[in-house]
Amino acid sequence: MERLKEDIDHKAEKFGHIEYYDAKLRDGHSNEVAIAASEVRDLDDRRKPLASVNPLFAKVSELPPTPNVEDITFEHISLNLPNIAKHALQELEQSSISIESTHGNIDNE
After folding, report:
1. Which member of 42, 49, 51, 109 has the lowest number of beta carbons within 10 Å of its beta carbon?
2. pTM (2 decimals)?
3. How far apart are CA 45 and CA 39, in angstroms?
4. How far apart are CA 41 and CA 72, in angstroms?
């Protein structure tokens, strides 16, 4: 009996943690939250921001697939549309002035 107790003590030291199954059965959700909190570093990059809300939520939530965005989309987003419109209006104004001056010179001749 003494050897059996020593063996149990040795195995308990090896694991360093003995789970109380009665408590686990009564409060399984808290156990899952605690386990998820210890596994936050193992989450993928898309789930890590969710861990600040709730580690269990980050672990078990169903994420939609990563969006497929073409490279040209970022190019279009980076365009400064107000600036482009401003330059286009200035060009139109200059071209209309040059057309008017050309018509004025023709009428004078």
Report:
1. 109
2. 0.41
3. 13
4. 34
